[in-house]
What we know:
By secondary structure, the protein is α/β, with parallel strands linked by helices.
Amino acid sequence: MQRIEHYIGGRTTAGTAARFAPVYDPSTGQVQAEVCLAEPSDVDAAVRAAAAAFDEWSQASLSARTSVLFAFRELVAEHLEELARTVSSEHGKVLSDARGEVQRGLEVVEFACGIPQLLKGDYSDQVSSGVDVFSYRQPLGVVCGITPFNFPVMVPMWMHPVAIACGNTFVLKPSERDPGASMLVARLWAEAGLPPGVFNVLHGDQVTVEALIDHPGVAAVSFVGSTPIARAVHERASRAGKRVQALGGAKNHAIVLPDADVDFVAGHLSAAAFGSAGERCMAVSVSVAVGASADALVERVRQRAEKIVVGPGLDPASEMGPVVTDAARRRIAGIIERAASAGARLVLDGRDLRVAGHEEGFFLGPTILDAVRPDMEAYREEIFGPVLSVVRVDDVDDAIALVNANPYGNGAALFTGSGEAARRFHRNVTVGMVGINVPIPVPMAYYSFGGWKDSLFGERPMHGPEGVGFYTRPKVVTSRWPTSQAPAPAYHFPTGR
């Protein structure tokens, strides 16, 4: 059986090799590899390798850094299909979705290639007699990224290209459920000319994560995962004096007004709710049907969802793959059952779906729950599966109030033909990312990604200008080059006069 090892200091290593975890093929339910789980000693080795590399890399010229970044960008583009197939085989998402994930990660690399412009400082001449002031930003040191299973290429690429471009060195702890893509990315960094130790990969579980957060050599922690863990990571890393950004869960709403085009909305809702089997932090899991739009909307979405081709991720004909594990499938099925028992109307039930030739795979079909109430588990919990809950309200103000009362604040969308309603919505809704007739409003790489409320803990969201700010700290220099005409020292507090 294939064994997936760590990548430390420019080479693969099993480390202590004391513990292992299975890596499944979600389409068959079979174990296809085992991955080493790092112990604290392995964490220490990775951090030390990164710290040793920081001395040289942090002093590398901007031209040297961008040369590596441009080379890495070309290699990622060249190996896009290989990365996509690796993601699909371990996560289960269909190939077209995996390709899209790699492309969105590539866009962050392209953004980071502009680091000379992004790191430009400020200069003020003659702030006082013969005194000038200028500022610039410096890297933090060794930083780490702890990333989830649902985007094994894209989410890490929200972090490490920007961190490395800024002059930091990086330790990545990807999900142990789909670790293969991170090892391929490590190989591409090396081929691009990145010095050994600048990018490292540690596989592991809670033991590994806690050792990374607690390690005194780690200056900052980036995390994406569920809200309870994001909160715990933020609290633990902050207590240790580290800079931290921790992105948590979501309950993304799509409000549909009566004036919206029902066919347009149904197509986009179906794709946003059931793409990647709903295992996206920006998936639409709640549709808020306003007034008279509800009945027609539910029927059109059902018609669309019934036609979705569910099958193995590597099958080009598949439009939706399995969920990542059997435990996830059983948990989602339980939420569906309890929602129906609590009074939700089961418009489409995907629990009995069977894929011919893949009966042991972790498959669930698209599921639609109508007449869901805010007190139901299906509304309160982040299901992270192919389940769309429909909540009915009377008007747009009720819809906005519903979104704002939810503890999550990742994203929300509005489908309408009214500019007035759209403006009122995006100004008043308490979420970090808003879509107007766009169901999954994931910003481009040159903007920043992050929610509000229980969807983000920490001072800054990810990538874009905020990402550069997170991975650097400012320094302000006040300078004077004395001449014979320089004023005599004074005992009063210095001023600009």
